[in-house]
């Protein structure tokens, strides 16, 4: 399927939020390598976003860096308008921006609760709404069976409860039902909405969970497949979900987690 020269997204355009680092950067690079023109959204790291843009261009692709805080309606609208001005249309949105602000429940401030919900859930709402509006307004694609595709970046914690991270788990549980409800609502317009639920992927968001030998060993015990995921593992999943290879996949969460959601602690217990 991913043989050299196979460009499933050739000529299409994709906007990836939170694409200056981690999973978002890998998704932007993978979509670019699959032939898409890519909007690389960032909020506070312009140099990192430009580096992603340059790597896509070096691969022969087209890309542009777009600044916006996804939790702010006006900035999201300006970003989508800039995307359209640059590339003419939108075929794929990967709503990926996400943060953690961890605290034990009793110590969690309203600001920590609110900021995580604002970015992880409201940010996806604002971007997905803008994408749907544009998919409906623009002429149908000549290059894809779908009128548009949305991929919501979730987490294994849309399913696995996570003590000490209640704000984050609540946001991802929300992403899951927002994604499924939206998928149900817009499938009749040939818009496909799906989610990806990464497990433990080696990125800055969870550095403390893999950067020391001891932490890494503890983490790998939670992963039946026996390795921490790489951002590229998620990039490949995003290419597939954005392409017509997954044309009949609607409203599904694709877990990319090395089996983390198989409850490995139960293997010899329970
Ligand atoms: C979190 C990471 C965590 C992983 C598995 C992700 O959604 O952002 O910090 O390592 O889930 O628990």
CATH class: Alpha Beta
Structural class: alpha/beta
* Radius of gyration over C-alpha positions, nearest whole angstrom: 18 Å
Distance between the termini: 40 Å
The topology string of helices and strands comes to EHEHEHEHEHEHHHE
Q: Could you explain how this protein is built, in words?
A:
- With 270 residues, the chain is an alpha/beta fold.
- It has a single domain, classed as Rossmann fold.
- It contains eight helices and seven strands.
- The protein has a seven-stranded parallel sheet, sandwiched between helices.
- α1 links the parallel β1 and β2.
- α1 packs parallel to α2.
Distinctive features:
7-stranded parallel beta sheet; 8 helices; 7 strands; binds beta-D-glucopyranose; globular; Rossmann fold; alpha/beta; 270 residues; single chain
Give the structure's gist in a few sentences.
This protein has 270 residues and is of the alpha/beta class. It is 42% helix and 14% strand.
Walk me through the topology.
Layout: E1 13-16, H1 22-33, E2 37-42, H2 46-58, E3 63-67, H3 73-87, E4 92-95, H4 110-137, E5 148-153, H5 166-186, E6 191-198, H6 207-210, H7 213-220, H8 231-242, E7 253-256
Parallel strand pairs: 1-2, 1-4, 2-3, 4-5, 5-6, 6-7
Helix pairs in contact: 1-2, 1-8, 3-4, 4-5
């Amino acid at each position: 399927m991913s043989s050299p020269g196979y460009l499933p997204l050739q000529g299409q355009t994709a906007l990836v939020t939170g694409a200056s680092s981690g999973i978002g950067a890998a998704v932007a690079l993978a979509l670019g390598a699959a032939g898409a023109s890519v909007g690389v959204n960032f909020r506070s790291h312009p140099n990192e976003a430009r580096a992603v843009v340059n790597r896509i261009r070096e691969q022969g692709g087209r890309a542009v860096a777009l600044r916006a805080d996804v939790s702010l309606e006006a900035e999201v609208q300006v970003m989508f308008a800039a995307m359209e001005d640059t590339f003419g249309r939108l075929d794929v949105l990967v709503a990926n921006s996400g943060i953690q602000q961890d605290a034990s429940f009793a110590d969690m401030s309203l600001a920590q609760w609110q900021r995580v919900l604002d970015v992880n859930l409201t940010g996806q709402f604002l971007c997905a709404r803008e994408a749907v509006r544009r998919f409906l307004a623009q002429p149908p694609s000549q290059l894809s069976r779908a009128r548009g595709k949305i991929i919501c970046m979730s987490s294994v914690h849309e399913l696995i409860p996570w003590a000490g991270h209640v704000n984050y788990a609540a946001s991802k549980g929300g992403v899951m039902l927002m994604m499924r409800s939206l998928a149900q609502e817009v499938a009749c317009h040939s818009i496909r909405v799906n989610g990806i639920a990464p497990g433990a992927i080696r990125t800055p968001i969870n550095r403390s969970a893999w950067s020391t030998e001891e932490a890494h060993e503890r983490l790998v015990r939670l992963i039946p497949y026996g390795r921490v995921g790489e951002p590229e593992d998620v990039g490949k999943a995003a290419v597939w979900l954005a392409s017509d290879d997954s044309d009949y996949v609607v409203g599904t969460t694709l877990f990319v987690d090395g089996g983390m959601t198989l409850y490995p602690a139960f293997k010899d217990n329970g």
